[in-house]
C-alpha cells in the first residue's frame, strides 16, 4: 500500500489519492485526517453501564471515503460522536488533523469543530430562513472576523452540487436531494479535515440518494476530501473505499473496495 511507514494503527485505511491541502498537512504534521487510538467509551455507570466502544483504533488517511456499518447498538453513533468531539472518550485518544482533541479546552474544541470538521445529517439541518447560498456560507460567518469567504471555492462547491439555479432559494423551496447537496456544500465550505455524514441518504429516495453518494465520491476523488459516513445501506457503503464493521463496540472487520453484495452478505452473517 501507499506510503505506509512503520507500525500503523490497528486499522489503517490506506488509499493512493489526491490529498487535500490543509494547514496541518502543509506543515507536515498530520498523515491522518482522523485517528482514534484505543478509544473506550461507556454509557451509564456500574451494572447498568454499556460499553459502547471497546478499545477502538482506526485511522483515516486524507482523501479517503470510509463507511461505518454494524448492527443496531454496535457503537456507530458513539464512534462518530467521539471522533467529532461531541462526546469525550473515557480512555484513548482522538486526533483530527493531527491535533489531540482531548487536550483542547471547550472553546478550542468548539472552534475546531466549526472550522476543521464538516457535518452532514440525515435530516439536512438547514436554517429555513436562509437561502441555499446563505446556508452554505454560514460556517464562515460563524467563524467570525478572522475568516474570509473564499468566493472561488464557494463557486466550485455550487458547481459540484449543481445548485447554480437554486442558490437563492430557501430550503422549503428545494427537494430533499437539493437540501442535502446544500448541506454538503456547507460541510465543505471551510475545507475541513474531515466530513462526518450520519445516514446522509436515509431520508432520500434511491435516485436522490445515489446522487448524494456520487457527489461525496467525487469530492473525495477530485478535491481530496476525507469522508466518514454511518450507513445501514450496503449500496451506500459500496461508494466507500472501505467499510469498518462494528459489533459490540469493536471493529470486527474492514472490507476494502466493498461491493454492495459483499457488504450485505457480511452483515447477514452478523444477523443484521
Ligand atoms: N446516552 C446513552 N446512554 C446510555 N446508553 C447509551 C447511550 N447512547 C448509546 N448507548 C448505548 O451504547 C451502545 C452503542 O450505541 P450507539 O448509538 O453508538 O449504537 P449504533 O450502532 O449507532 O446504533 P443504531 O444503529 O441503532 O443507531 C448501545 O448499547 C446503546 O444502547
From TrEMBL:
SMART domains in the record: AAA
Protein's UniProt name: ABC transporter ATP-binding protein
Biased composition annotated in UniProt, kind: Basic and acidic residues: 7-17
Entry coiled-coil feature ranges: none
Signal peptide positions on this chain: none
Organism in which the protein naturally occurs: Nonomuraea helvata
InterPro entries found in the cross-reference section: AAA+_ATPase (IPR003593), ABC_transporter-like_ATP-bd (IPR003439), ABC_transporter-like_CS (IPR017871), ABC_transpr_LolD-like (IPR015854), MacB-like_ATP-bd (IPR017911), P-loop_NTPase (IPR027417)
Record-linked PROSITE patterns: ABC_TRANSPORTER_1 (PS00211), ABC_TRANSPORTER_2 (PS50893)
Domain of life: Bacteria
ABC transporter domain span: 34-267
Stored Gene3D superfamilies: P-loop containing nucleotide triphosphate hydrolases (3.40.50.300)
Keyword Chloroplast: no
GO molecular function: ATP binding
Keywords, sorted A to Z: ATP-binding, Nucleotide-binding, Transport
Annotated stretches, region: Disordered: 1-26
Family annotation (Pfam families): ABC_tran
Aminoacyl-tRNA synthetase keyword on record: no
